User: Which sequence fits this backbone?
């Protein structure tokens, strides 16, 4: 029995090695998302804010420094100094490349010392309410720092923060964890679909239909190979993320993805999620006649599942339509535990994830195998 | 006259090809709409519910009042940022309560312990910023004339919800996705099926064949963007302020996107890779060009890249239509026209090289 399984596995492997391009289905879209999101969000929070300080005293410079140095939970600062001239800054602000411009007048320090309503002019972009809110509140963080420095010991409120984790991660590693899961499920499903399609197109499926051996020998090796390819594609994404983090200007040391000794938990979760989708790929491989149709369906389903089930940010507490939609995809149930393992090296809360994913994968694979078996019996 | 009739027949033949690529048509037209409906639900709320546990002191009451009063200053009827709620009896920090602000009055100050339950740093940032804003107001009230006054000058007189901007992003995406998802596989299928030979052997002018295909893809994209604009209008009540200008801009933009889609198909000549390359390019250009958020959030390198993306300038041209009272620069229109001419010219060059002079 094992020998027969091995022979089938080896045959599938040879087919795959003959045309390993099928694995590209698991790479291209996730890597595009990874690179796109990395470029957009790896420096998240540090948006350009031009401050033109004409103050003759010391407080203008201190205020500018405070605004630029206020730190976000993402690890970096909210603003950075673009170092532009006033004319260039105005052009950039007009073309939506700056969040805003702060003008500190010449009499700022004098009025501050005199207690005569020191004021600064703040032009900011409020193209939607969330951005407008950030523009106002980020500067408030800077003012808070400025007051602490300028009026020490006078704060009527002292704020302490208690986090559930030792330190927060930037947005990019959080997204990268989602992309890792996406690349595994795309790699696995695409491979399984492509193998079945090839057997269908080459006519070898007919031989299996005529053979007396059980369909189990036909499908189990494909599931095994799909799982291995899923691990491989996830591994490549993992390496790319690590390289990204190591780049100059990437992430601080230890802030990328690292499962540590809990790698088996990460592997378990991504395997289960992949299996939830492999069932669909098996059905597609038997039904679809053209590779591009199945390929498109798989890639788009994967990408939709990434965006809608917590690939960008946790969705467990989403309300409204999203509170329902994320539950349609298995990824959402794994993401929380997956991020715990990969971002914080702490044991994920596997229980709730397994309660959903194990039956989901079992039902998906069971139904798909039954479907394939029925089709194979029908000559 | 004969040319016009031939063009009309060719156009009809082009539309009949839809049957062979139904999946791509469905995805190309429907995907942006579905994405829009679902992602518009992801738009972050402006008002956050923040749970408070106070000791009943006047200092705590003062901070809670400041939390409730924190709002978008500088615009009429700016929304409030915090909805402070007392912690329900028996409730604990956890799944349904994401943050808790505990207040305890001390001799000379109020000690606030801000506890978070989630690991989402973006949410934590939002909660923290709001509490800092409220606490700052309390401090400034005490400082009186020594406090720094921010003379706020918001760029837009109205401060719309995220979905208004997202509508513009959707429209740009709808045009691009439909053009690339349909145009690239349409050409690639000719190569895969071998029907490209018919174009090579046909006595009909190659310019006519190419024009028919280009117009067919452009028309499909215009239908897609029309549906998207209609959906945004009906669903959100967000309509362009000048329909004719909007239509003109979209026609111009479809020249760019349809040319690009056909060029990808000509260069790749395989349906699935053409689709994947189209998908990746669309995503990247959409993100870099400000379809999801303004280029202001991009890093310095990507800001430079965004200046080379036609999406960036198309978004700039759409601003006056969706943000009344704003204007776009003539440079943006010039660049989009230049891109349209350039992409069309490139398509002709590649078509001649690939179809008319095959190796």
Assistant:
């Amino acid at each position: 029995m094992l020998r027969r399984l091995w022979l089938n596995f080896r045959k599938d492997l040879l087919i795959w090695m003959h045309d390993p391009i099928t694995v590209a289905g698991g790479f291209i879209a996730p890597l595009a998302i990874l690179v796109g999101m990395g470029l957009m969000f790896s420096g998240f929070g540090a948006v350009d804010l031009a401050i033109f300080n004409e103050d003759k005293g010391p407080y203008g410079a201190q205020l500018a420094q405070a605004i630029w140095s206020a730190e976000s939970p993402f690890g970096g600062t909210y603003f950075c100094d673009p170092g532009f001239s006033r004319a260039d800054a105005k052009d950039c602000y007009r073309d939506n490349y700056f969040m805003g411009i702060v003008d500190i007048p010449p009499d700022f320090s004098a009025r501050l010392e005199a207690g005569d309503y020191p004021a600064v002019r703040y032009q900011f972009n409020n193209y939607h309410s969330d951005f407008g809110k950030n523009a106002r509140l980020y500067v408030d963080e800077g003012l808070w720092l400025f007051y602490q420095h300028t009026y020490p010991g006078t704060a009527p409120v002292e704020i302490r923060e208690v986090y559930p984790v030792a330190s927060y991660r930037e947005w990019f590693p959080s997204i990268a964890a989602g992309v890792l899961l996406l690349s595994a499920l795309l790699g696995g499903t695409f491979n399984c679909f492509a193998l079945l399609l090839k057997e269908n197109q080459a006519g070898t499926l007919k031989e299996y239909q005529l053979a007396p051996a059980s369909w189990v020998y036909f499908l189990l090796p494909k599931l095994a190979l799909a799982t291995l390819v899923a691990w491989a594609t996830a591994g490549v994404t993992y390496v790319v993320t690590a390289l990204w983090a190591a780049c100059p200007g990437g992430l601080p040391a230890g802030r990328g993805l690292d499962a540590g000794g809990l790698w088996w938990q990460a592997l378990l979760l991504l395997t289960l999620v992949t299996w939830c989708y492999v069932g669909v790929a098996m059905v597609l491989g038997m039904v679809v006649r053209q590779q591009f149709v199945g390929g498109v369906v798989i890639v788009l389903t994967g990408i939709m599942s990434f965006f809608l089930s917590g690939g960008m940010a946790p969705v467990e507490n989403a309300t409204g339509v999203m509170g329902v939609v994320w539950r349609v995809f298995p990824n959402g149930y794994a993401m929380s535990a997956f991020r715990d393992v990969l971002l914080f090296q702490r044991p994920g809360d596997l229980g709730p994830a397994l309660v959903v994913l194990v039956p989901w994968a079992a039902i998906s694979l069971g139904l798909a195998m039954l479907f394939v078996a029925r089709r194979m019996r029908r000559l | 006259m004969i040319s016009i009739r031939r063009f009309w027949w060719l156009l009809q033949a082009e539309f009949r090809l839809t049957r062979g690529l139904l999946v791509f048509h469905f995805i190309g037209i429907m995907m942006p709409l579905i994405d829009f409906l679902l992602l518009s639900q992801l738009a972050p709320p402006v008002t956050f519910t923040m749970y408070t546990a106070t000791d009943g002191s006047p200092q705590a009451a003062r901070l809670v009042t400041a939390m409730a009063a924190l709002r978008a200053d500088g615009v009429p009827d700016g929304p409030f940022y915090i909805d402070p709620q007392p912690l329900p009896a028996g409730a604990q920090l956890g799944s349904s309560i994401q943050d808790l602000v505990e207040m305890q009055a001390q001799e000379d100050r109020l000690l606030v312990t801000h506890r978070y339950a989630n690991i989402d740093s973006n949410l934590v940032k939002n909660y923290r910023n709001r509490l800092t804003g409220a606490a700052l107001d309390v401090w400034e009230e005490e400082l009186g004339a020594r406090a720094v006054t921010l003379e706020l000058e918001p760029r837009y007189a109205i401060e719309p919800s995220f979905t208004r901007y997202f509508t513009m992003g959707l429209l740009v995406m709808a045009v691009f996705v439909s053009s690339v998802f349909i145009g690239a596989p349409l050409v690639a299928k000719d190569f895969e099926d071998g029907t490209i030979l018919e174009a090579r052997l046909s006595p009909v002018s190659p310019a006519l064949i190419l024009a028919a295909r280009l117009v067919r893809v452009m028309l499909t994209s215009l239908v897609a963007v029309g549906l998207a604009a209609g959906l945004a209008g009906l669903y959100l009540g967000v309509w362009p302020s000048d329909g004719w200008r909007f239509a003109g801009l979209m026609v111009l933009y479809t020249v760019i996107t349809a040319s690009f889609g056909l060029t990808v198909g000509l260069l790749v000549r395989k349906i699935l890779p053409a689709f994947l390359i189209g998908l990746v390019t669309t995503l990247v250009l959409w993100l870099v060009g400000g379809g999801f958020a303004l280029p202001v959030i991009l890093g310095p390198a990507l800001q430079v890249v965004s200046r080379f993306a036609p999406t960036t300038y198309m978004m700039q041209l759409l601003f006056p239509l969706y943000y009344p009272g704003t204007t776009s620069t003539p440079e943006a229109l010039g660049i989009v026209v230049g891109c349209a001419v350039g992409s069309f010219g490139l398509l002709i060059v590649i078509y001649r090289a690939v179809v008319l002079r095959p190796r």
